[in-house]
Task: structure prediction
Amino acid sequence: MPPPPREAQPSDYFAEHVKQQLLKAEWLGDTDQERYQRVFKGGMHIHTTLDSRAHQLAQEAVSSLLPEDDRGFTAGLVSVEPATGAVRALVGGPNFDQAKFNLVTDGDGRQVGSSFKTFTLMAALEAGLQLSDQISGAYPCPIANPGSVNDPWTPTNIEGEGGGAMTLAAATVGSVNCAYARG
Result:
């Protein structure tokens, strides 16, 4: 008698995320076992918003940006269709087979770091600022934060008290927190 067919395993972060969401979906059953049976043995047909070409390109982009060494760099990427909210691609890290932690969906509690600088920069450019415009990156840079336990909010610069006046381009290249907090 041949062995039973092997259970399908997700091949990437997107498939794993969908699987985990289904296994948590109470509408599929009251218990973990009921949900498991319906997801893996219930004959379900699952349709997602994934665009396989966009997903492939996202995986290639993440792979191409990371250095091929053991310094532990990671990256994630999600592509969302703005008009509908449909997730077209989701890459939770550089190698699903080696690291199951999904940087995109499981990063709760992790600081977003400098990723917000991209949105701040776009808003500044849309408002008419130029990359050559001067901005202060000097530390300390207390920012009013009414109603918060951190009022004022005082971001720090990785480069310490340096910074001073610089162009928006230099603040971006140097990832100067105080310049962006003032912006």
Q: What stands out?
A: The chain has two domains: 1-109, 115-182. Strands lie at 77-80, 87-91, 134-136, 165-167.
